[in-house]
From TrEMBL, chain A:
Residues 291-362 form a coiled coil. PROSITE patterns: DNAJ_2 (PS50076). Keywords: Chaperone, Coiled coil, Cytoplasm. Residues 251-266 have a biased composition (Basic residues). This is J domain-containing protein. The lineage of its organism: Eukaryota, Fungi, Dikarya, Ascomycota, Pezizomycotina. It comes from the Eukaryota. GO terms for biological process: 'de novo' cotranslational protein folding; regulation of translational fidelity. It is found in: Cytoplasm. GO terms for cellular component: cytosol. Residues 100-170 form the J domain. Residues 243-269 are annotated as: Disordered. Its main location: cytoplasm.
TrEMBL record, chain B:
It comes from the Eukaryota. Residues 479-493 have a biased composition (Basic and acidic residues). This is Uncharacterized protein. InterPro entries: ATPase_NBD (IPR043129), Hsp_70_fam (IPR013126). GO terms for molecular function: ATP binding; ATP-dependent protein folding chaperone. PANTHER family: HEAT SHOCK PROTEIN PDR13 (PTHR45639:SF32), HSC70CB, ISOFORM G-RELATED (PTHR45639). One of its GO terms (cellular component) is nucleus. Residues 479-508 are annotated as: Disordered. Keywords: ATP-binding, Nucleotide-binding. It comes from Arthrobotrys flagrans. The keyword ATP-binding applies.
C-alpha cells in the first residue's frame, strides 16, 4: 500500500475533549455523483476484480498475494518422493539391466512421462540422501551399492538414446490388453492400453481410443492410425553382452549376429502383438456397430424418403394426366356445341333469306308487277321479276332482311316500288350493279 | 499432454484507427509499448485505400494516388462508419472517392478491377480491408499471427459504431478484445511510463489534434483509474486546416509569379496539399522549410521556402480556436484552468511547436504540458493512442472474452464518485492566519471513484500532547495574493503541488487554496510526543461509508472510527 509522507502538522486538540470516546461524527459525506469509469488500465482491472467478486481492498490484496504465491508453487514439477523398500535398496548394481531405473530414482509413477527436469530433481534428491560419503560420516558401513544404482539409472535416463531403449522394454509401463471375453466398459478397458502403447509412436499427437461420444471420423482416424502405427520401439536393451574385442572375434561376431536376429524377431513379434491388440479392440468396439446401424438407418430413411418422393411424383403425374384428359374432353364438347350452333344459325339465315326473297318477289306480285291496271302482260312480269331476281342476287342476307322488313305490310304498289327502287339505288351506289342492268324498275 | 501447450502467450496489438492515419503497436516482453512500422517503414499509416488496375494500394502508396487517381482512392472514411448518409460531412472526402448512399449507410464506388463495372464498397467493407492490411503489417513485423487487438475510437463514437467496427475487424480475421477511448489511451500511455505502481492523483486534459478534427477531454486520474469529466469536439479544425493555411500562402506566391491559381485545378491542388503537409511536418522540426513541386500548374515548377514565424502567423487563427476549445472543455467540466495538473497533446498536429507553447502560456507554469516542443521527454503525440491500446491489449490478453465483457459492463464501470475533496484539516504556520495557505490536506480529491483508500503520514504535533484529526470536505478557492513577493515565496514551503498553482498576469498573483467546507468527523489521538509521526488512513466504501484509521508510528496509540453512509 502506498503511503504519502507529508510534512504537514495536524491540529492540536482543545484542552477539553467534549465528546465521549475518541471519535465523534458531525456530518455525513455529500451525495456522490455517478459517473462512468473508463475500463482501461491495470488499476481499473483491479477495481473491476474487486467489484465483481465483492471484495474489499484488504481481502483483494490477500487473495492476489495468495494467488501469486500459488503460482510459484505450481511451477514446481510434481512431487518426487516415493518410499524406498528394502529390496530396492539392497539391489546389486551389477544387475543394472534388470533394475527399474524409475523406481530407483523414485519417479515410478511418472515413468516414460517423466520430464528431464523431474529426472534431474529426483536424482539430486536421491544423491543427497544416499551419497556414500554421507553414509560413511553417519558411521554406517562403506556401502555405495545403491548409489551406483542411482548413477546407472541417471546415466540411462538422461541419455535420450539409452532412455528410449529402456523405455522400449519397460514392462512396468505396459498395460495388458483385456481378453476378448472381458466384460464391462470398453472405453475404460482399452483407453489405458492405447495410452501406454502411444508412447512408442513416432508421430504425435496420437489419437485416443475415445468414448461413446467420439464421431465416426474420429474412430476411423483412430483405427487408421493404429493399423499404420509407426513405432520407434527397439530391443537393444535386451541384447546379450558382446564379449570384448580381445577375446574371440568369431565369438563376438556370432553374438552380434544373434543379437541382431533377436532384435528383428522381437520387433516383428511386437508389430504382430500390436496388430492383435488393435484387431481385438476393433472386434470389441461397439461404436462401429452403432455407426453401421446409424448409417443403415440413415440410408433407409433416405430410401424411404426417396420412395415417398417417387410415389408423390407418380401420383402428381397421374393427377395431371387425368386433369388434361378431362379438360380436353370439355373443350371438344364445347367445340362440337359451337359447331352445331353455327350450322343451325346458318340454316336459319338461309331460311330467312329464302323467306325474304319470297317477300321481295311477293311484293312485286302484290304490286301487280307495277302495271297500271289489269293483269300485267307476261313481258312486264318477266322484266320485273328479272329485276327483282337481280336485286336479290346483289343483296346479302342482312340487306335482304332490311328490305323484306320494309316491304312487310305494304300493299300500295308505288310504296313497294319505291322501297325496291331505294334498295336498287343502294346497290347501285355501292357499285355492285349499274343502273342499266335493271330493265324496268328504274324507269 | 496437449494441455501444457495451451497457455501460450497470445499475440495482441493495439490499433489506433484514425480518420487520417492509423498506427499499430505491440507491447514487448519488458512491458514497453512500441509502435510498429509497416512494410514501407511508416509508423503513421495513412488510412487510405486506393485501387489501380487490379491492385489494392494501402497507406502512403495509396495516399500518393490522391494526385493521379482520386476517384478510386478512399480516404477519411473512419467517421462515416455506422452513420447514415444524411448525417455525414463529406467535406474531407472531396478530393478522394466521394461517399454515396447505400441502403442505410454510406459507401464508395470504385473501379476495383480493370475492365469491370465499378463496385460499391460499404464503409464497413473498407474498414475491414484497412484493418486486414494493418494486421498483416503487424503479423509480418512480429513474425507470428495476431490473436487479438484493442482499437481506439473517439469518445463520441456511438454504441452502434463500435459494434460495426468490431464486426468489421472480425470480418478481417482479427478479434477485437476491447474498444477504448482515444484520450484515455493517450493518458494510459503516459501513466504506464511512470515507474511507481501508485500513480499520483491528477486531473488531465487530453487535447487530440488530428488530421481532420480536434477533440479535447478532461479526465480525472485517481489512483490510476480514469473518469471522463467532459469532452468537446471540433470537426472542422485539424491538421488539414493548417495545411490549407500553407496552401493559400503558397498559392498566392505562385499566382504572383505565374498568374495561375494552382487551387483551380484539382490535380495541382492535390499536389500542393500533399507537399504542404510535408512542409508543415518539417516546420515542426526546423525553423524553416522548403517546398518544391515540379509542374505544379500551367507547366510551371514551384520552389519556395517558408519559415516557422510565417507559419505561426498564418495559423494564428487556428491556434486561437484550439485555445478556445481547451477553455470551453475546462468550463464544461466545471473547473478552473488552474485545476488542470497536466495537459497531454496527442495527434499528429500536436508536433506544431506554436500550439504547445500557446497551451503552456494558457496554463500555470507548473502545469506540465506533454508535447515535444515543451517537454523533451514527451512521447510522440502521434503514437499515444496506439501505445495506450497496446498496453491495454497486453493487460487483457489472457482474459476470457466473458471476463472482458463482465469487466466492461456498466454495472462495474458506473461508480459513485466523490463530489467534493475529502481530507484532514492541517495546522497553518503561525502568523499566516487567513493568508493564502492550504487549510486541508486532501486525501481523496473530487471525482474519485469509490471505493477508494488513501494513506498519508503527518507530523503529529510540534509541541507534544493530544492531536485532533478533523476529517473534512474541502473546497478550492482562488485567492489574490499579489502583494509582497517575499511573502509569497515564504508561504511556498509546502510540497503540495496541486494547490499552490500560480498564474502571473501582470502584477496579480492568484493562488488556489483548499478551505474547509464541512466537517465530517473528529478523532482524538492522545499523548503524541513531539516529532512523532502519525499515519492516517481514509477508506471510503462503495456506499460512502467512511472509515478512518489513525495511529502513531512506533507508538501504541491508535484510533478507528466509521461514519456510515447517508443511506443507512
Amino acid at each position: 500500500m502506498n503511503v504519502v509522507a507529508t510534512k504537514h502538522t495536524l491540529l492540536p486538540a482543545e484542552p477539553e475533549w467534549p465528546h465521549e470516546g475518541g471519535f465523534h461524527i458531525l456530518e455525513h459525506l455529500s451525495e456522490p455523483t455517478h459517473r462512468n469509469l473508463e475500463p482501461v488500465g491495470p488499476h481499473y482491472l483491479a477495481h473491476a476484480r474487486r467489484k465483481r467478486h465483492h471484495r474489499t481492498f484488504s481481502e483483494d490484496d490477500r487473495i492476489v498475494a495468495a494467488q501469486q504465491a500459488k503460482n510459484v508453487e505450481d511451477a514446481d514439477p510434481g512431487e518426487i518422493s516415493e518410499p524406498e523398500d528394502a529390496m530396492l535398496l539392497s539391489r546389486d548394481p551389477k544387475d543394472w539391466k534388470n533394475q527399474d531405473h524409475y523406481a530407483v530414482l523414485g519417479i515410478s509413477k511418472y515413468r516414460w512421462k517423466a520430464t528431464d527436469e523431474q529426472i534431474k530433481r529426483a536424482h539430486r534428491k536421491k544423491v543427497l540422501k544416499h551419497h556414500p560419503d554421507k553414509k560413511a560420516a553417519a558411521g554406517g558401513v562403506d556401502d555405495d551399492n545403491f548409489f551406483k544404482c542411482i548413477q546407472k539409472a541417471m546415466e540411462i535416463l538422461t541419455d535420450p538414446v539409452k532412455r528410449r531403449q529402456y523405455d522400449s522394454v519397460d514392462e512396468f509401463a505396459d498395460v495388458d490388453p483385456p481378453s476378448r471375453k472381458a466384460k464391462g466398459n470398453i472405453y475404460k478397458l482399452w483407453n489405458p492400453v492405447f495410452d501406454s502403447e502411444s508412447r512408442f509412436s513416432k508421430k504425435k499427437p496420437v489419437p485416443r481410443f475415445g468414448d461413446d461420444k467420439s464421431t465416426k471420423a474420429e474412430v476411423e482416424e483412430f483405427y487408421n492410425f493404429w493399423y499404420n502405427f509407426d513405432s520407434w520401439r527397439t530391443f537393444e536393451y535386451l541384447d546379450e553382452d558382446v564379449p570384448d574385442d580381445n577375446e574371440n572375434r568369431d565369438q563376438k561376431r556370432h553374438v552380434e549376429r544373434k543379437n541382431k536376429a533377436a532384435r528383428a524377431k522381437r520387433k516383428t513379434e511386437d508389430t504382430a502383438r500390436l496388430r492383435k491388440i488393435v484387431d481385438d479392440a476393433l472386434a470389441m468396439d461397439v461404436r462401429l456397430q452403432k455407426f453401421r446401424k446409424e448409417e443403415k438407418l440413415q440410408k433407409d430413411a433416405k430410401k424411404i424418403a426417396r420412395e415417398a418422393e417417387e410415389k408423390r411424383l407418380a401420383e402428381e403425374a397421374k393427377k395431371k394426366a387425368e386433369e388434361d384428359a378431362r379438360r380436353k374432353e370439355e373443350e371438344e364438347a364445347v367445340l362440337k356445341a359451337s359447331k352445331a350452333d353455327a350450322k343451325k344459325a346458318k340454316e336459319a339465315a338461309k331460311n330467312a333469306a329464302k323467306k325474304n326473297k319470297r317477300v321481295l318477289r311477293k311484293g312485286a306480285e302484290d304490286a301487280n308487277y307495277f302495271h297500271a291496271d289489269g293483269a300485267a302482260p307476261p313481258d312486264v312480269i318477266s322484266n320485273v321479276l328479272a329485276d327483282v331476281e337481280l336485286l336479290i342476287t346483289k343483296l346479302d342476307n342482312e340487306e335482304l332482311d332490311v328490305v323484306a322488313k320494309k316491304l312487310a305490310g305494304l300493299k300500295v304498289s308505288d310504296e313497294i316500288k319505291s322501297v325496291l327502287v331505294d334498295s336498287i339505288r343502294g346497290t347501285v351506289s355501292k357499285g355492285s350493279t349499274a343502273e342499266g342492268d335493271f330493265k324496268v324498275l328504274l324507269k | 499432454m496437449s494441455d501444457s501447450e495451451e497457455p501460450q502467450q497470445k499475440t495482441v496489438i493495439g490499433i489506433a484507427f484514425g480518420n487520417s492515419n492509423s498506427s499499430i503497436a505491440f507491447t514487448s516482453l519488458d512491458g514497453k509499448a512500441e509502435v510498429i512500422a509497416n512494410e514501407e517503414g511508416d509508423r503513421q499509416i495513412p488510412s487510405v485505400l486506393s485501387y489501380v488496375g487490379d491492385e489494392e494500394y494501402h497507406g502512403a502508396q495509396a495516399k500518393s494516388q490522391l494526385i493521379r487517381n482520386p476517384k478510386n482512392t478512399i480516404a477519411y472514411f473512419r467517421d462515416f462508419l455506422g452513420k447514415s448518409f444524411a448525417d455525414i460531412d463529406p467535406t474531407n472526402a472531396h478530393s478522394s472517392a466521394h461517399p454515396i448512399q447505400h441502403e442505410t449507410g454510406v459507401a464508395f464506388s470504385v473501379e476495383e478491377k480493370t475492365d469491370a463495372e465499378p463496385s460499391t464498397l460499404t464503409v464497413s467493407e473498407v474498414t475491414t480491408r484497412h484493418i486486414k492490411r494493418l494486421q498483416e503489417s503487424a503479423a509480418d513485423f512480429l513474425g507470428k499471427p495476431i490473436d487479438g487487438c484493442v482499437i481506439t475510437v473517439p469518445t463520441d463514437f456511438s454504441e452502434a459504431q463500435r459494434k460495426l467496427l468490431s464486426e468489421a475487424s472480425k470480418a478481417s480475421g482479427l478479434e477485437v478484445l476491447q474498444i477504448i477511448h482515444e484520450p484515455v489511451a493517450s493518458l494510459l500511455a503516459y501513466t504506464a511510463r511512470e515507474e511507481t505502481s501508485h500513480p499520483v492523483d491528477k486531473t488531465v486534459l487530453v487535447l487530440d489534434i488530428g488530421g481532420t478534427r480536434t477533440d479535447a477531454a478532461v479526465i480525472a486520474s485517481r489512483g490510476g483509474m480514469f473518469t471522463l469529466l467532459a469532452t468537446q469536439h471540433d470537426y472542422e479544425l485539424g491538421g488539414r486546416q493548417f495545411d490549407d493555411a500553407l496552401v493559400d500562402h503558397f498559392s498566392k506566391e505562385f499566382i504572383k509569379k505565374h498568374k495561375t491559381d494552382p487551387r483551380e485545378n484539382e490535380r495541382s491542388l492535390a499536389k500542393l496539399k500533399l507537399e504542404c503537409e510535408a512542409t508543415k511536418k518539417t516546420l515542426s522540426l526546423s525553423t524553416s522549410a522548403q517546398i518544391s513541386i515540379e509542374s505544379l500548374a500551367g507547366g510551371f515548377d514551384f520552389h519556395s521556402t517558408v519559415n516557422r514565424l510565417r507559419f505561426d502567423l498564418l495559423s494564428k487563427k487556428l491556434v486561437d480556436q484550439i485555445v478556445g476549445l481547451v477553455e470551453s472543455v475546462v468550463n464544461k467540466a466545471g473547473m478552473d484552468l488552474t485545476d488542470i495538473n497536466e495537459v497531454i497533446l496527442a495527434g499528429g498536429t500536436s508536433h506544431t511547436p506554436k500550439i504547445a507553447s500557446r497551451i503552456q502560456q494558457l496554463f500555470p507554469s507548473n502545469t506540465a504540458v506533454q508535447a515535444p516542443a515543451t517537454n523533451p521527454n514527451a512521447l510522440n503525440p502521434s503514437e499515444l493512442s496506439a501505445r495506450g491500446a497496446a498496453i491495454q491489449a497486453s493487460l487483457i490478453a489472457e482474459f476470457e472474452a466473458e471476463d472482458i465483457e463482465q469487466s466492461t459492463h456498466p454495472a462495474v464501470t458506473v461508480t459513485p464518485h466523490l463530489p467534493k475533496p475529502i481530507g484532514v484539516a492541517i495546522h497553518s504556520p503561525e502568523g499566516d492566519e487567513g493568508k493564502a495557505e492550504d487549510k486541508v490536506y486532501v486525501f481523496l480529491d473530487a471525482e474519485t471513484a469509490v471505493p477508494a483508500r488513501r494513506t498519508a503520514t503527518f507530523v503529529g504535533t510540534q509541541v507534544g500532547g493530544d492531536v485532533l484529526i478533523r476529517i473534512v470536505e474541502a473546497k478550492r478557492e482562488s485567492v489574490d495574493v499579489t502583494p509582497p513577493k517575499e511573502v509569497k515565496e515564504k508561504t511556498n514551503g509546502t510540497d503540495e503541488d496541486d494547490d499552490d498553482d500560480e498564474e502571473e498576469e501582470e502584477e496579480r498573483v492568484i493562488k488556489r487554496v483548499t478551505e474547509v467546507e464541512k466537517v465530517i468527523a473528529e478523532a482524538l489521538l492522545k499523548d503524541v510526543k513531539k516529532g512523532q509521526k502519525v499515519e492516517v488512513m481514509l477508506n471510503v466504501a462503495g456506499d460512502l461509508t467512511l472509515t478512518i484509521t489513525a495511529r502513531v508510528i512506533g507508538g501504541k496509540g491508535g484510533i478507528r472510527g466509521t461514519v456510515p453512509g447517508r443511506a443507512q
